[in-house]
């Protein structure tokens, strides 16, 4: 079992039954995400939480490796609510930290939720959990480690809404007669 974990870059520290991960344990993924909780027959089963490198977490009840109910909490403490979501909607664009008491004076708006802001590499976007390269369509975390490949919807959203790592004049350009 340990050979397979090493081969995949994963780790496990916990209880075994008949050579299978079973009982309480901690499973580490090569992406630095870790699961802490109950296992059965080598799968997440029972109560357990995923902890992500960006500080967010997903606490759930698992059944044979599938989350049957759970809740996601962002790194800043905001609990995701699927219904009646009020965070950064079309009417109130403040970040959660601004809503909970850190609203800055007029003229000092927050462009990102966490200050100080990360320096965005040239040609990239800051998409909230890392940097996005629109040429390769890859998202890396703020330490430049691979997170995911962006699909078409995420690519379009990032291009339309996220901060760029370069200056671009987008104002009025007068016509010049030659």
From TrEMBL:
- Where is it found, in Gene Ontology cellular component terms? motile cilium
| Family annotation (Pfam families) | MORN
Q: Which domain of life is it from?
A: Eukaryota
- Where does the record place it? Cell projection, Cilium, Flagellum
Record InterPro entries = MORN, Morn5
Statement: the UniProt record of this protein carries the keyword ATP-binding: no
The protein's predominant localisation is other
Please provide the record's keywords in A-Z order. Answer: Cell projection, Cilium, Flagellum, Repeat
Keyword Acyltransferase assigned to the entry: answer is no
Instruction: Name the chain's protein.
Output: MORN repeat-containing protein 5
Q: Which organism is it from?
A: Biomphalaria pfeifferi (Bloodfluke planorb)
């Amino acid at each position: 079992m340990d050979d397979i974990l090493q081969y995949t870059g994963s780790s496990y520290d916990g209880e075994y039954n008949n050579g299978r991960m079973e009982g309480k344990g901690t499973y580490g993924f090569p992406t630095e995400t870790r699961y802490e909780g109950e296992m059965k027959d080598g799968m997440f089963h029972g109560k357990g939480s995923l902890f992500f490198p960006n500080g967010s977490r997903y606490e759930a009840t698992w059944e044979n490796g599938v989350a049957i109910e759970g809740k996601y909490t962002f790194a800043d403490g905001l609990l995701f609510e699927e219904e009646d979501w009020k965070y950064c909607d079309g009417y109130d664009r403040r970040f959660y930290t601004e809503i909970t008491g850190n609203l800055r004076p007029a003229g000092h708006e927050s462009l990102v939720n966490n200050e100080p802001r990360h320096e965005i590499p040239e040609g990239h976007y800051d998409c909230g959990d890392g940097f996005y390269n629109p040429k390769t369509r890859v998202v890396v975390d703020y330490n430049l480690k691979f997170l995911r490949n962006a699909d078409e919807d995420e690519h379009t959203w990032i291009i339309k809404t996220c901060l760029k790592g370069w200056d671009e004049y987008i104002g009025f350009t007068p016509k010049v007669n030659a």
